Amino acid sequence: MTFFLQMLVTGIVVGSVYALVALGFVLIYKSSDAINFAQGEFLLIGTYVCLTLITAYNIPFIAALFIALMFSAVLGFVIERIVLRPFIGEPVISMIMATIGLSSVLAGIVHIIWGHETRVFPKIFSEQPVNLGEIVIAPVYLWSLLIVVAMLIIFTLFFKYSKLGIAMRATADDQQAAMSMGISVKMIFAVAWAIAAIVSAVGGILLGNINGVNASLSAIGLKVLPVAILGGLDSIPGAIIGGLIIGILESLTGGYLDPLVGGGLKEVMPFVILVFILMFKPYGLFGKKEIERV
Amino acid sequence: MRNPFVMDCGEFHVNYKQDMAIWKISRVRMRVFILLAIFAVFPMFASDYIIGLATLCGIAAIGAIGLNILTGFTGQISIGVGAFLGVGGYTSAILTAKLGLSFWIAMPTAGIVTAIVGGLFGLPSLRLKGLYLAIATLAAQVIILFVISRWDALTGGTAGMVLSRPELGSFVFYSERSYYYLMFAVLIITALFTLNLFRSRVGRAFIAVRDRDVAAEVMGIDLFKYKVLAFIVSSFFVGIAGALLGHYTMVVSPELYSITVSIEYLAIILVGGLGSVFGSIYGAVFITLLPVVLRSGVEMMSGVFPDLSAVLIGMKEVVFGLVIILFLIYEPQGLAKIWKNIKDYFKLWPFSY
Questions:
Q1: CA-wise closest residue to B46 among B180, B157, B228, B214
Q2: B324·A111 Cβ contact <8 A
């Protein structure tokens, strides 16, 4: 039972980070109908920038975090402007390939600047494990959960009450109607990319604190795709619930099934679940069904 | 002086059959045969290294034509080609190395097995479209690779398997030159089949599905049947390419079929030209040779900047991504369209209107 709870808690923490990164996918999809295959690289760049600021320039963590987030936002902004703008209204495959190309460019730049070795964040959170009943939790996990929950609440409020958030929802709903109400749709796309870059950077920094940073961290980008699809590509609550489901299932698979088959099943599980979900609910759990007419 | 490119004029088709002919006028046919002859003769004069590169380009072209049937002609994006290549390679490896069957049975069987697997993963395609289908094929990629790397008894796990070169009677296709001819024959058959496929009822249905699938269904095209059929036909050729590649490199192992390979194949058809058989070939040559050219470029410069080789991997990724993005922005119809533009320019020269 303790083992189960332990796995459950790990799953919830990892799942909440997934949810955060999935939020980036959902934001971009909602506003501009594109999937960002470069999300993993956004995450990697944000993490590396933060790490470099801390280790090379001795900037305190909180300041470094904020600079890294600002940097990510600008990066998202600029990339939307140069790379994605020409593809508004183009077929899906152009969008997919453009972001795949982008991910390749960014990955190359990361390799050139930071190389391949795994780097470790200096300890930011205390290492004294916290005991909850019989479960032992590292503080880094608790902090991660706390930060993710805070971010999710902030974004929910942002979409519900802020002017920009409402404009973003309006754009997602109907681009032409939003435009005729005086909303700059191009601006909204840029903001969506900037926010996506920020949330991925936060996700990356948290995961980096848990596992260390190297180039393979960007694989998270692909891993979170099932999360976004499971919840429905255009649903923010879907991203959160999808993240938790995948995180918990992954952790439980890792704990119970991996010893039986000799490892690796954990990585595949999200995709197996995804295929089954798509068979029965093609638009995910909370996705909007598209109706087509000739 | 008379412009030699103007020979293409005089297309006065009076019936449907002429309009659908694969070579519009006899001079075009002659030109194609001359080109084929050049490609058939060139290995006599080239070095083994060049022939090897040409073979790799040709194998990539076979797979790319397969993918183009699915993505370029039928409009269903697949990010799982890498794994399907793997299915082809492993089927052929298991049949020849474990069961001792001949390559000539194993290669078509590899195609058929891949077609069945592809068809299975194509089943959700009726309800999924665009992005969702792309992600479903991505799932196929991950799941198939997992099965390959875990089913130790059958596939040898992560260590992979060793294959032998095919034999015909007592002749073994061991030299680069002989394998080139084998690839060349398969490539010609693949290209001819695909060119003809899109002059047939089935091919037309594929194109209708791509252009507007709901409208196609209203016109009486059985969407489910044709979408799955596209997956099957496409995977068949990808499987053949996988088998050829496996017997060429003489080794199969899971990391040869990663998602990077899938993305490379997507880049091939995109750079070459979606929905174009010749485009697939141009793209295959372009993307296969890109790293080779880059590497020799870096080696030339390494005398000046000694640390440059460390940067090579990163540079390769940057250039690869830039090529994709620039093609998408400036010539979305790929090299096939660029080639056509050049031809058109000369046809009209010196009156460019």
A1: B180
A2: no
